[in-house]
Design brief:
488 residues, mainly alpha, two-stranded antiparallel sheet, 2 strands, globular, disordered N terminus
Length: 488
């Protein structure tokens, strides 16, 4: 045994605040790009001409389509999480053959995922959209047009998500970020020209479109799938050229059902976590159906809210992705002080982001809604101002809950996070929203379900955190006093 200590990884030595920023900023930047690209779609779609008041019914159509898009992403990311973890584990064991086999099976599963969503796109889109909005034919037609294209051509998205996980499994996170960024930039550039006619005035006439194809929501979908396909092609090329740790080949390939089972043992919890949001959003849209002529206005507001809140939540999720490996590493190194410090600093940063979002939604909800072409006299403006102010009251609670959930993941307690998420969105938010919808002022009262659910979430999260503290964290040495033989 050597008397010389091996140089420790930066996660055990770098000042925690600096380390957290170093780990988080690339992921925050990537997530903000994704948030911006999601908003751009809705902004340009809101300027599609139509006869009527309020936001374009195309906004409600995208809100409905997001339910299935989010499900498709959840399945793709969850499958990728299983592939990522197994590849990393086998690379650590220097078992490159198995790692390559896992990569090939991962791409096979991506193809299977595509076939599933292709079938949904061919046969299930219209019944689904009609179920979500039973009062506005314009929303139904726009939703069918958009979602059919997104699902039928989702092979780009399925391949992109898997290739990104292959790169992440070998530590090539910057390559993964470039892949995401390429698709987002292509989509942002193509959106206005595919969606709008030339001469369309934007933002109160501040900008005029020089030319455009005027394809409406179909144009938005086409721009999206072009971006996804370009990202997938770019990702496959750079993975082949620059990712030397994993060689993707299908020569003599046969599905390995044992490996596939292992992939989904790891990935299914992630799929469930990602899919919960789709169930919640679908449930809210069904509740809105009870308001007749106001259904589309309520769905517009919900869709706009989710686009706006992504700018608040995405940085916190990026911060959380940086927190998890820091806490996990220092748990392995038995350094309680660094674990606590990382969690506290992360909470402070999260609260800063959430407070900024709260202030904006409390002070300028009207201008924020007007970005999406909502007129001052539109029903969406009255509903939206009150909705943004009510929902944003939950932001402070949400920031702390997300950070605590990251600590759970780092300690291998993902079931804690899953239970909190299911309880918040399905066991509290939806039932409370349903009950509030039955009150005299139901359409405005319904938004209180968000802060009520978030209050429950932080309460349960803190209880689970106390359990984790008393059972595990407080028994760790303060500064890694236990020196293990493998560290020497």
């Amino acid at each position: 045994m050597s008397n010389t200590l091996v140089k420790e990884n930066k996660m055990g030595t770098m000042p925690v605040g600096k380390l957290l920023l170093t780990m988080s900023l690339p992921m925050i930047a990537s997530m903000l790009v994704q948030a911006f690209y999601n908003v751009v779609d809705t902004v340009f779609v809101s300027y599609i001409p139509y006869e009527g008041e309020g936001a374009s019914p195309a906004v409600a159509a995208l809100s409905i389509a997001f339910i299935v898009q989010n499900l498709q992403i959840a399945v793709g990311v969850g499958t990728g999480v299983g592939v990522n973890a197994l590849i990393s584990r086998n690379l650590g064991k220097k078992d490159f053959g198995t790692a390559n086999a896992i990569a090939a099976n991962g791409m096979f599963l991506a193809a299977c995922n595509y076939i599933f969503f292709l079938l949904l796109g061919l046969f299930a889109v219209r019944p689904f959209v009609q179920l979500m909005n039973q009062s506005d034919p314009a929303v139904v037609e726009a939703g069918v047009s958009y979602l059919s294209i997104i699902l039928i051509f989702s092979f780009g998205s399925c391949a992109q998500l898997m290739v990104e996980k292959l790169m992440q499994s070998t530590g090539k996170t910057m390559l993964s970020m470039y892949t995401q960024g390429l698709g987002a930039v292509i989509n942002i550039v193509l959106d206005p020209f595919f969606i709008l006619d030339g001469g369309t005035e934007l933002f109160g006439g501040v900008v005029t479109m020089p030319f455009g194809l005027g394809m409406g929501v179909a144009g938005a979908a086409i721009a999206t799938v072009i971006g996804q396909i370009a990202s997938a092609i770019f990702g496959i090329i750079i993975n082949h050229k620059l990712n030397r740790d994993v060689h993707l080949t299908f020569r003599g390939f046969k599905p390995d059902w044992k490996l596939i089972k292992e992939i989904y043992v790891i990935g299914i919890p992630s799929i469930i976590m990602g899919s919960i949001g789709s169930v919640m959003t679908g449930g809210l849209n069904l509740i809105f159906n009870g308001f007749g002529a106001m259904t589309t206005a309520a769905q517009n507001v919900l869709g706009i809210y989710f686009k706006l809140q992504s700018f608040v939540f995405m940085p916190v999720f990026g911060l959380n992705n940086g927190l998890i490996p820091i806490v996990a590493y220092n748990y392995g190194a038995q350094k309680r002080r660094r674990i606590v410090r990382a969690a506290v600093i992360s909470c402070i940063f999260a609260l800063c982001f959430m407070t900024a979002g709260l202030v904006l939604m409390q002070t300028i909800p009207g201008p924020m809604l007007s970005i999406f072409n909502v007129a001052e006299n539109a029903p969406e403006m009255e509903i939206g101002i009150k909705a943004l102010r009510i929902i944003s009251l939950s932001f402070i609670f949400a920031g702390i809950s997300i950070t605590i959930g990251g600590v759970f993941s780092a300690f291998g307690k993902s079931l804690f996070s899953m239970f909190v998420s299911i309880a918040r969105q399905l066991l509290v938010l939806l039932p409370v929203a349903f009950l509030l919808a039955k009150t005299a002022n139901g359409l405005l009262a319904i938004w209180w379900a968000f802060p009520i659910a978030e209050l429950m979430s932080i309460t349960v999260s803190v209880i689970f955190m106390l359990v984790l503290w008393h059972k595990t964290i407080k028994h760790l040495p303060v500064d890694g006093a236990i020196i293990r033989s493998e560290d020497i």
